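Dock XIL; give full complex structure.
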Amino acid sequence: MPFRISFRLVTLLLAPAILFASSPQGLRDSAQSAGVLVGAAVRPSLFSEAAYSETLAREFNMVEPEDAMKWWKVRLSQGTYDFGDGDEIVRFAQAHGMKIRGHCLVWDHHNPEWLAQGHFNPAQLSHLLQEHIATVMKHYAGQVFAWDVVNEALDEHGHLRDSLWYNQPGIGLSDKGTAYIGQAFRWAHEADPQALLFYNEAEGEGLNRKSDAIYAMVKDFKARGVPIDGVGLQMHVAQLDLDTAAIAANIARLTALGVQVHITEFDVSLPVDSSGQPRHDDLLRQAEVYRGVVHACLQSPGCAAIQTWGFTDKWSWIGSHSHGTRGAALPFDRAYKPKPAYDAMFEEMSAKANRPH
Ligand code: XIL
């Protein structure tokens, strides 16, 4: 039976190729199959490090500047705009077929001295902010697909934080609650009508007073036609017993309002010893936190992106932020080796990709 033999032979020879084609090869591939973006915050000064660039391009399909598009980087003086670092990120992303999230246009932190200490009056601040939003967003129009328009405007009670843009002295809407946030979104929509506009916040991922306030604000904006498209959940996690069911519930209620959710700044910091090493057990528990958050996102069709804040423990803001007491927060270790957290993300995304829709 020559036909049967050769048919078997062909099947045998093809089997690895079929397997290869149908099972995801890495995070980027598994995310694409799961229908979600997987991103990392990046520093353009590190693109020259081969392992950094190779890992980033291989494993992620989205990038966000960790600092390069913030006021203090872009606006060294009132009269100048410096897009150098941001443009480098755009070039990298375009060369590797990656999407770009912009971060951020309105925040009370990381503003240049001339702005924060400039004693501008509300009319001047309003003009400065509108001009900044318009100039930056038009520069990146067609390149940056989504912007964190406003970052961290609420405190842990869900009240508006005192800030330069709100009430110190603010842009002229200081006694009108979230109106200054709505104004920023309207200016952003005018500047680039195609861009998706996000409100980005810390510690409002689960169910608490802050996330209740975000929910109420988004509901109100949607009802009044304020152009908001999404909520960014930062997800800087420091505890290993995270309530991921509450996160799933929060994502579900937000997406039910008709906005997207992006996980924007995910990391899970661990206690580290004096040489920066975490305990082995903690790495395994960390992986379960990663798994739970990815699972929570993938449960909601409106949760469209999962992004980590950096991707290698070699370059993470956690060490400097925690004065070296915590670290090891990201899916790759300092040698760019995937950690259990990476495997957990990969497995969750692959499982979603293989589930019937
Ligand atoms: C951090 C960067 O990672 C640091 O490099 C910088 O020194 C300070 O800002 N929430 C945010 C991010 O929205 O912009 C912050 O990024 C981390 C907390």
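Observed: The CA atoms of residues 72 and 111 lie 5 Å apart.
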